[in-house]
Amino acid sequence: MPRSLAGQIARSWRHPRQVMAELMETGPNEARSLFHLFLACVLLLVASLPNAMRIATRIDADDPLTGAVSAHLFGWLFVAPLLFYCLAALMHLVARMFRGRAGFAGARAALFWSALAGAPLALATALAGVVEQAATGLVRGPLSGFLGYAALAFWVWLLASAIAEAEAFRTTSRVLAAMVLVFVAMAGGLAGLSGAFAAG
What we know:
single chain, about 200 residues
């Protein structure tokens, strides 16, 4: 990763709106946004490999590790980018209802940049999980679980800040509150669906 890009990521952890404003100064750059998305997906793929290896131990196949890693590779490099594009479009449509002004390209720039800014956190969490498992034998111990939730919360704040800046909202707090409500609703819906399937 180029030093300047690493520096931008580090600064975005402290001043996410300022860094997003700098990225938006000359208008959304589709090539740059695509690069951010691709690099984020590669880093998230690497972060997912320990989980792929754990899954491989439960697969009954001739070469379970290759199968698990291939599935993660396909998911992060082919499926995830499409989902990110769909999510960016959905975020802008919602923001436009509240007079957001980023446009679809601006929403993509905000989401893809925040994904890249949060990817090192996923790597650190994955590494902590590997170390904890080696030390305690627990597949998912309390430390890695806590770090995972903390990293997710921090990433949601990064994303809310990027969206607020790109869409020209005055405050980040309202965007953050709306995102938390959406995540809670989605989690509740998924829990309800899983419960319904389990009952059936």
